[in-house]
Amino acid sequence: MRNLTRKQLWAALLTAATLFAMTGCSGIGGDTNSTSYTESTIGIVDTTEEYSSETPFLYIKNDDGTIAISGYTGSDAVLEVPATVDGFQVTAIGDHAFEANWDLEEVTLPEGITYIGESAFMDCGSLRSVNIPETVGTIRRAAFASCSVLDNVTVPAGVKVIMEEAFSGCASMKNLTVVSDSVVYENWGLDSEMMPELVITCSDSSQIAAWAAENGFATAALS
Q1: Which of 15, 35, 37, 205 has the fewest CB atoms inside 10 Å of its own CB, making it the most exposed?
Q2: 95-108: string of b/e by CB count within 10 Å (b at 16+)?
Q3: What is the pTM of this model?
Q4: Over the stretch 31-62, which tens digit does the pLDDT of each residue have?
Q5: Cα dist. 140→27, 187, 196 in Å?
Q6: Nearest 5°: CA angle at 143, between 193 and 38?
Q7: Which among 204, 186, 100, 116 is positioned nearest to 153, based on CA atoms?
Q8: What is the rounded distance in angstroms from the CA atom of residue 138 to the CA atom of residue 76?
């Protein structure tokens, strides 16, 4: 089992920062300090045994027999995360899995991923491109925080929850496409002064369109 002290420290710091920032604001529901990887499994990454394999991916096992990627030991700039590792289906990107990996420039995630964990790609300062599969339902807090050159993200219709600070510090963001009509803005970290070129592409009738209009962001209609 790998030493996870750094992950625990980051989780504690993020919790403290979020509680400070969200004081007096409405919550997002549920315990944001635990990570749900499947509909039937709720686990906390930094108290779960981590496995290595012949691939550069580390993972933890879910109760339903699937796995969550919990770390990466490679150095590829263009990375395709596999749909299976050691014969197990990958259904989540775990908390801090790729955090501060400056080698990463492009990441392709497989269909079947349902969760992108807390700070999963935080501080990936070279990350320009990431796809979010149609199967994803939840993007947890600070998932892409401080990805300073990430400029274009599409959030598919299946995503129902995007947690706080998900895109905080993404100063190069120029287009954020939100396909879902119902996903609600929950302090994602979008800043019109830091992101002056940001255009939010969404349905005119969506929740995010109403939020964007109220907060001075340019919008474009989904084609």
Answers
A1: 205
A2: bbbbbebeebbebe
A3: 0.81
A4: 434 444 444 333 334 446 899 999 999 999 99
A5: 14, 12, 25
A6: 145
A7: 116
A8: 26
